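Exercise 7. Given the encoded structure of a 275-residue chain, write a plausible sequence.
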């Protein structure tokens, strides 16, 4: 598998000279399976640049999109995803069906007049929407994508992709508990790559510096290291960078993590990993 980061920022896009290295686009992760499947996790603003690259091929695009949840920073790039406008393109989209709405309804909602000039129905690609429940597994050729629930306001899915003995776990927008839930530990155990929410430091989360962030739905770099070590993950990539953290702050957090979990790094736009 090949992994590429297109956006790793949390909550809101943060373009500017202070975020040049790690990037300011919100969550979007590309995974290419050994079997040639295109798998995309989340459609934050990072998916716009991914779409531009895919469209350069000139022909239709086929792929599968998995949404962790439908908070705006994870869907706001979808209306600017060029392949979704290309006739002949085909996408399968997976997400949890909520009590009041589905993934399809959420994507339609953000594109309704007067907030956006083009409706979901006017996009040219063929789209198939699928509801997911916890423990579902989706087969994509020789790869499989499974999911469990995380801890986040309104709910969130954590995903694991496995193929040919290799695996990557995408665990954004998951708030830690005092003790690591056994279900989460088992789901992550032995992953080659753990991409993990680490939006805050312990001092920020606890309120020792600024406003307390407990119950906001995100984890800390300290807890990401603890989780990766407990699960026996081979590599840790921290994710969902706080919009108030500039490149200097994220560099400090990255160095702290790498001192305690060798090889740990903060996700940056353009980061590529091969399994």
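Solution.
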């Amino acid at each position: 598998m090949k992994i590429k980061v297109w956006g790793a920022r949390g909550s809101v896009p943060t373009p500017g000279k202070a975020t040049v290295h790690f990037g300011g686009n919100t969550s979007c992760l590309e995974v290419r399976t050994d079997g040639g499947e295109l798998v995309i996790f989340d459609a934050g603003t990072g998916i716009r640049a991914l779409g531009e690259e895919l469209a350069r091929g000139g022909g239709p695009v086929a792929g599968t999109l998995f949404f962790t949840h439908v908070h705006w920073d994870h869907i706001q790039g979808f209306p600017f995803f060029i392949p979704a406008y290309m006739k002949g393109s085909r996408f399968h989209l997976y997400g949890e069906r909520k009590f009041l709405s589905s993934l399809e309804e959420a994507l339609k909602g953000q594109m309704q007049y007067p907030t956006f000039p083009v409706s979901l129905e006017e996009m040219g690609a063929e789209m198939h929407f699928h509801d997911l429940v916890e423990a579902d597994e989706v087969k994509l050729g020789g790869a499989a994508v499974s999911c469990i629930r995380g801890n986040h306001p309104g709910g969130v899915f954590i995903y694991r992709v496995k193929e040919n003995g290799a695996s990557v776990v995408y665990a954004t927008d998951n708030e830690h508990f005092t003790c690591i839930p056994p279900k989460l530990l088992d789901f992550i155990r032995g992953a080659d790559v753990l991409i993990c929410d680490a939006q805050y430091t312990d001092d920020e989360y606890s309120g020792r510096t600024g406003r307390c962030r407990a119950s906001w739905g995100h984890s800390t770099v300290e807890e990401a290291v603890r989780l990766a070590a407990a699960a026996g993950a081979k590599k840790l990539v921290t994710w969902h960078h706080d919009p108030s953290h500039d490149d200097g702050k994220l560099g400090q957090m990255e160095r702290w993590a790498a001192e305690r979990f060798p090889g740990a790094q903060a996700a940056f736009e353009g980061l590529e990993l091969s399994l």
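Remark. Residues 247-260 form the longest helix (14 residues). Students should compare their own answers with the one above.
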